[in-house]
Amino acid sequence: MNVRIGWILFGWISAAQTGLPPLPEPQMVPKPGAGGVTQAILPGGIVIGLYPPGSPLLRAEKAGQAEVYNMSQAVPGRVSSIVNIHNPSIEVHLVEKGINTGAAVILAAGGGHRTLNVGGEAADFVPFFYNYGVNTVILRNRLRSDGYEPRTDAVNDALQAIRIVRAYAKDFRIDPNKIGIMGFSAGAELSAPAAIEFAAFDKKMAGDTYGNVSSRPDWVGIIYPGPSPFARGRTAPDIPANVPPAFIASPGSGDRVHAIWAMEYYMAMLDKAVPNIEMHLYGNGRHPGDALPDGSRMSGGLTDRNGIPLGSWQYRFIDWFRDLGFLAKPGVETKAARDVDEYVSDPPKIPVKRP
User: Fold this and answer.
1) 284, 318, 291, 321: which is closest to 302 by C-alpha?
2) What is the arithmetic mean of pLDDT over 264-287?
3) What was the pLDDT predicted at 25?
4) What are phi and psi of 173, to 5 degrees?
């Protein structure tokens, strides 16, 4: 390649400097909605507010504020993260009828409860799951940085998202028994309690628009998680008999604290002999955003991570997901559901003490 042409292609010499015609503006760039109206961040997204206007779960004085988007500096139109979320919502992306498994994944992005990293830990997964016939739902939950409490407000948002997807399952051609939630880092602080706290939430919300629709996830994903309800120093909750299966993945010693939080959830389930709990701890890897020796930062979500095994965790998830029957045709009972029913009807005899 001619060196000068290379400079042009890689942005080292601008079009103006070379006399080329100016580049057109990028199209279909998402813009946050005024008046609290939430806009889709990807084309074709169906946006549904989690709570109706005037809900006691919303703050009336904040309801008219628009979300604030942090746009990528390198990729036009890409929303990297969002803050100022006062009207939590879901954004639904459906797959073609011919490949539809009926499964749906609700994605709870991380960001340390300061921001919501919807680029790498939500939007990027829409085409990935599309290839497997899985419908994708991006959750925009409320954040601590905006004055909300993650362990109540954000967890409520996650559970309400599950109820709404299940309530509209027929309209979306989603199997109501194949709805799960996958959380990343701070987002896993929503997916983990969703597996435990659904009954209490359903009781609290029974009188709303969605009536008796259950918020129980059929499975949960817990990816390089923050602290779960079983974290050291917390009073461990009771595990419901119909607790859903879980897929857990994290770096190991390079991200020690998140690995410990992953293990605490896993051990709580293992102590109760809960079926279909799978965990992958990787020997090489760090938490997304951590500094690397070369001065760059560890990426997250679906990124390759320079070819280390952690970079292909998503394919281990697909193996687990397929094994439990979630990639079968809609309406076919999953192995996951059968195993939960068996566990509920004939719980295993567990020794008082660990062996």
Assistant:
1) 318
2) 96
3) 85
4) 55, 40
Cross-strand pairs, 220 = 181, 246
| C-beta pairs of 48-53 under 8 Å, 24+ apart in sequence | 48/89, 48/90, 48/92, 48/164, 48/168, 49/87, 49/88, 49/89, 50/88, 50/89, 50/90, 50/157, 50/160, 50/161, 50/164, 51/88, 51/160, 52/209
Residue 185: both structure tokens together: 């880092």
Of 343, 349, 336, 280, whose CA–CA distance to 103 is shortest? 336
Evaluate if residue 340 carries a pLDDT over 90.
Answer: yes
Q: Which of 116-120, 300-304, 327-331 has the lowest mean pLDDT?
A: 300-304
Cα 242 to Cα 260: distance, rounded to the nearest angstrom: 25
Q: Are strands 104-108 and 135-140 parallel, antiparallel or unpaired?
A: parallel
For residue 2, the model assigns a pLDDT of 47
Residue 275's contacts (CB-CB under 8 Å, 6 or more residues apart) are: 245, 339, 340, 342, 343
**79, 72, 87: which is closest to 146 by C-alpha?**
87
Quick check: 46 and 92 in contact, CB under 8 A? yes
Phi then psi dihedrals of residue 348, to 5 deg: -70, 150
For all residues of the chain together, what is the average pLDDT? Answer: 92
**Average pLDDT for 113-140:** 98
- Helix 155-167 and helix 198-205, axial crossing angle in degrees, nearest 10: 70
Dihedral (Cα; 346, 349, 350, 355), 10-degree rounding: -140
**Separation of alpha carbons 343 and 333, rounded Å:** 16
What domains, with CATH codes, occur in the chain?
Answer: 31-345 (3.40.50.1820)
pLDDT, tens digit, for every residue of 304-316? Answer: 988 999 999 999 9
